[in-house]
Write a structure and sequence with these properties.
This protein is an alpha+beta fold. The chain folds into two domains: about 90 residues, no CATH class; about 60 residues, no CATH class. Helix content is about 40%, strand content about 20%. It contains four helices and six strands. The protein has a six-stranded antiparallel β-sheet. Strand 5 and strand 6 form a beta hairpin.
């Protein structure tokens, strides 16, 4: 399965959506989830997601033992077994976007709406954000080493 434009996609989908593909009749995802137990995982290949779609994706149904409900992820990855892990990495990106929009840089208050101007504005913000992350890592490392040194003196 080759994605359009050579770009893979991985996204979480709702249990209310339908799947159809690889010899399986049209089935609501919620019906598939009812048959799962905690700790189980299932990969469905070449599925049409939703009733109107013509684009096939692989679907991963994963119900980790530590979670109350299963996660359903659709992906174009050639190795769909990694899709839920990849999807989980997005939680590190969302705080950055929040920082850009409202917390530290307040991008929304600039009232810039032209895409080219926003792009130009994002360049120094990205550099500033990288510097903040490096500084935070440096302080965290320094605090850790100071804690170890202090602990050694107490012996």
């Amino acid at each position: 399965m080759t994605p359009p434009y050579g770009v893979d996609a991985t996204l979480r989908i709702k249990a209310s959506m339908y799947l159809n593909g690889d010899g399986m009749p049209e089935t609501k995802i919620a019906t598939l989830l009812q048959k799962m137990v905690k700790g189980s995982r299932r990969v469905l290949y070449n599925q049409l997601v939703t009733r109107d779609s013509t684009f096939k994706m692989n679907v991963v149904l994963n119900w980790g033992k530590e979670y109350d409900e299963a996660m359903v992820v659709a992906t174009t990855l050639a190795k769909p077994h990694r899709a839920d892990i990849l999807y989980g990495q997005r939680f590190g990106i969302e705080p950055m976007h929040k920082d850009w929009k409202t917390n530290a840089f307040e991008l929304e208050k600039t009232r810039v709406t032209d895409p080219k101007r926003i792009e130009t504005l994002l360049i120094p913000i990205a550099f500033a954000y990288i510097l903040c992350v490096f500084e935070g890592e440096k302080k965290k490392k320094h605090a850790t080493s100071a804690t170890h040194q202090k602990a050694k003196r107490e012996w």
